[in-house]
Amino acid sequence: MSHLTILPTVLRDAEGLAASLVALGHIPIYGGVLKGFAAESQPVLLQVVLPGGEQLGWQRHRDGSLALVGDLQRLSRSQSLQRLLGAITRRYAAELALRQAASAFPGAQVSVAS
Questions:
Q1: Could you tell me the end-to-end alpha-carbon distance of the chain, in angstroms, rounded to an integer?
Q2: Cβ-count burial of 88 within 10 angstroms (0-12 exposed, 13-18 middle, 19+ buried)?
Q3: Each residue of 7-23: pLDDT tens digit?
């Protein structure tokens, strides 16, 4: 039986995460609940439904970080989901770097090359 698991991450900025998801071709949804096995559910700040129907979500922890919420058994078996999580993390880091550069150099035009 699989169930929803909450995994700590280093992500903190929900808007940066949403922008990263959009850049990777996903549609982020703010709010809602991820449903698991046997009526298990977890409220999330941000979620995405992947093409295979898998759902990933993020909820805010007390320390301000965004924890990943998902079906750990399914995540651990899927190479494509593991690659996606890596891509999200890399894109998130790029988004934060761009935001920092834009605030350090007002009026400068910054972007990520695809």
A1: 39
A2: buried
A3: 888 899 999 999 999 99
